[in-house]
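Backbone Fold Data
Goal — fold tokens
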Amino acid sequence: MMQLAYHGFLMNLVCFALTLILLHGGEPRVGASASTHDVVKIGAIFTLKTINGRVSKMAIEAAEKDVNSDPRILGGRKLSITIHDSNFSGFLGFMGALKFLMTDTVAIIGPQSSVMAHTLSHLANELHVPLLSFIALDPTLTPLQHPYFVQTAPNDQFQMTAVADIISYFRWKEIIVVYSDDDQSRNGITVLGDKLAERRCKISYKAALPPDPTASPSDVADQLVKIQSVEARIIVLHTFTKTGVLVFDVAQKLGMISKGYVWIATAWLSTILDSSSNSLLPLNSYNTIQGVLTLRPHTPQSRKKEVFTSRWKQISNGSFGLNPYGLYAYDSVWMIAYALKSFFDQNGTISFSNNTNLIGMRGDTLDLGALSVFDGGKQLLDNILHINMTGLTGPIQFGSDRSPLHPSYDILNVIATGYRSIGYWSNYSGLSVITPEKLYTKPANRSISNQHLYDVIWPGNTTEKPRGWVLNNGRQLRIGVPNRVSYQDMVSQINGTNAVHGYCIDIFLAAIKLLPYAVQHRFILFGDGHKNPSYNDLVNMITADAFDAAIGDITIVTDRTRIVDFTQPYIESGLVVVAPVKRLKSSAWAFLRPFTPLMWGVTALFFLIVGAVVWILEHRTNDEFRGPPKKQIATILWFSFSTLFFSHRENIVSPLGRIVLIIWLFVVLIINSSYTASLTSILTVQQLSSPITGIDTLISSNKPIGFQVGSFAENYLTKELNIPKRRLVPLGSPEEYAIALERGTVAAVVDERPYVELFLSNHCKFSIRGQEFTKGGWGFAFPRDSPLAIDMSTAILNLSENGELQRIHEKWLSKKACDLHSTDNEQLQLNSFRGLFLICGIAFFLALLIYFISMVHQFCQNSPEKSDPSNGCSSRSARIQTFLNFVDEKEDISHKKSKRKLEDISSIAYSKENHLRSISKRVQMDISQEAPFG
């Protein structure tokens, strides 16, 4: 391609030199020419043997006639447009341009070829002659380098953006491009590649053909045969009429315009469809290209366009249909006319002067003085760029980048009877089934959900969207499989027949069966079989084209997603910490463990505070909270702690007291519930203890950490968690895990959860500590933008929905875990409640002891003293019996009997005393009566 461009440049230089030699001796013009010109000369350069050339010639001549028929435009002046036929020759085109530049031409319409435009624009820049083209649409013809070159139609940058949006809309990832190897086509394909890259798509193959119209059937056939060996089936054809027709003719013979293929032709095909009748169409029939998509510059419907379209049959004598480039040709003439009108209104005059850069070369063999500078060229160019008119193509204005405002295209689908529109593309809102001019009245919306097209009839007369790619010629896919040493159930076990099978293999095979097409494949083990391979190296083998895919326990991490595409994860995975644990034995004081000592102390203090507060609030109004100090203290203590069981019996009468009690009872309810739940867990669940509680304590411990060889855990620990590499210990198998953890070689092992679950199923001395500190999953790796990755993701989702994924998981990974809790351990042991029973026993004993002493004291106080010493002391057994009878009696009866006995004793003593007194009185009376006779 570079050589062709270089040869083209040399050819242009030769043409320039030869032309100047031929022009030697021409009459030089010095100073300004006549101040007035009745005729304004304009040149036009086209290849008249092309459809666009013929249509443009007819449209330009019609525009010239219309402008000259309206004296208001140029104030009586006339346009004189001379059309030069370049006849596919850059040399002839250059000659025509020089001829125009030597005859006081103020503007040139054309050229038709972008190759010629690059060369002529340098002349236009030097001589200040505006160059207007609506067919040379090379996006590299920028105004910075070519300020006097103006593209009056949207250039190929917008057309290629439309093609990229169509490809993205149908979710294709790889395409093939077929193009003519000239400046315009080649640069357009470069822009297409950039636009596709922005949409995560790419060009997988470029087929360059000789420049139009020099391509031969053999040239085309050679390239199309190569395309057949490429997996992609989306073909973008960017060329010109003759080459494009030839490509379709050869593709039809090779069976490439059939089901499974997608052809997108740029605007050259719509030109043929619009301008040619079926009799002139150089294809056998529309059936030959049925299903092809093509673009056409969009021109809105208007009254002016309808009138011109009705005139076209007369203008062309029915030989050619009108295509959009005929409309652009007509409008280009009117643009120059309106720009000249403004030029003359600004008192501009058409004059030419010698180029000061060429004065020194007069008299040389090359007489360059024959070329003059258009003095009003810059002013005319500014008028063109600031034009604001409505033409056959709609409103005409130029943006800040000097491209027409609101570029848009019709999207056509070729069918058996002609073609049909399936939508539009505009730089404003992207793909839509609504005309662009209607969308301009609404806010721009290029979101994915707002992109729409009508259904397409694809090659093969099908409405089913083609997949866009095929597996190349039945070649077996090379599937890389890690040759693991440990955890072989995960990925690859090799049986006696050297067949590879395992968890990941089964998932891959089940997903392959769900694909709507056959996939030939073979598994290739990666690794030496002595240690686990590096999974980063395995993924890199895909980018090196050593593998077409890699399957296995490959974790989806950021670094890997930058170089390959992963499927939907088929299992969740995250890093966890495994550490040795000790079982906490049940303690006699286990019932105290739900609360910390501080919690116990604060709770007890609040019980006392609540009792005191309620006593203060109730003391003056509630008789139950009155009485001697000892009784009130007992009441406070009883009331406080009885609320723990909601068993208080004291009535609360004050409103404040009731509010306090309600709040406190709610707090007690929460405390009771929390205590009950915590104690239940402590007494029924196996309690494990370890100084490592998670990744945070492991990082801060500065102890060695084990990891699985080949795992991404090493990079994560060093790069993400900044753990020094000297602390990391590589371990190759579950047995090495267990040995390292038991001997204390490592404080813990960091690995992915699926591996850890298998490890713990046979090693119950260890446990997962803390939560997963990464989130991710395992997936199958494919090359970037591989369509197979998308189809496999869909298949994995189907496996998940129909339950097959879970069945495979249970087959390989759901092993029975070791028995952490025996039947005896699941029962509550006496030792867990020994402390409670001990407290109850001591309380019972002390209560009985105090009660016994109290009873003995009461018995001794209440027992009657014997006045008759002759009876002596009662026997010990009698006294014990009396004591037991005393204890057995109700307390109030005992008090009454004691009181009655005391009253009886007092009455007896009183009666005896009265009896003695009566006897004494009787004796004294007897003595007194006997005395007189004595």
The mean pLDDT is 81. The CA atoms of residues 328 and 374 lie 25 Å apart. The two ends are 187 Å apart (CA to CA). DSSP finds 30 helices and 33 strands in the chain.
